[in-house]
């Protein structure tokens, strides 16, 4: 189970397993700093999710999901101290529509990742940070994360009743000084809490929040070599990001598997 390295080393076969784990992202941040990275899978025509048939919610298209990409998704999760997500994820989780329960996965094929976390002195599972101005977060979904620290970052106009209910469900609430949560405030909060690596797995709006303040460090993008079309869809970022954001290609691999032809790219967000 190999992939072909295209950059920086061309024409070199590499094992898929361990491809991202070997990056040791949990050791990249300097003391008192934080590495924030995101990950998406998209079709060649840029779709990361499509609107579902009976609602305005979107889901990752079944036509691009595959186990080989999912292995790398899990390897990125294994290196995280905390995972950044959204209230929308927990609404989907409450309805049974979420892809997972925020990895690292418990299946036998990911046992090596759990062992790796233990050997590196990391918790069995990453903590969770939810970004939400509305605080429309089902308390029943939070209870599925028992044993993990759950932090919620919200704007200064959050409803006190919702804050109290989520605190009663075991979450830690952090109110910002601004109406909306900002990327800079998120980074400052996570550094103050002692985190070194944060893995963002939310949708394009949370991605925009981090990119707009230039606090996102790495973007991992799998491009499934398919065109899937569709009229209601999301791309990897939504909304204004404060001008163009240039990316530096760090690595690129081609997965030549007949059933899952795709590219695995890693980018660094260049700071202005």
Number of helical elements: 7
CATH class: Alpha Beta
Shape: globular
CATH overall fold name? Dihydrofolate Reductase, subunit A
Please summarize the sheet with the most strands.
11 strands, mixed
Order of helices and strands: EEEEEHEHHEHEHEHEHEEEE
Strand arrangement within the widest β-sheet reads: 2-1-13-14-11-3-10-6-7-8-9
Task: Report a brief summary of the structure.
The protein is of the alpha/beta class and 272 residues long. The chain has seven helices and 14 strands.
Features:
Dihydrofolate Reductase, subunit A; 272 residues; alpha/beta; 22% helix; globular; 27% strand; eleven-stranded mixed β-sheet
Explain how this protein is built.
With 272 residues, this protein is α/β, with parallel strands linked by helices. The protein has a single domain, classed as Dihydrofolate Reductase, subunit A. It is 22% helix and 27% strand. The strands form two sheets. An eleven-stranded mixed beta sheet has the order 2-1-13-14-11-3-10-6-7-8-9, with helices on both faces. Strands 5-4-12 form a three-stranded antiparallel beta sheet, with no helix packed on it. The model has no long low-confidence stretch (mean pLDDT 92).
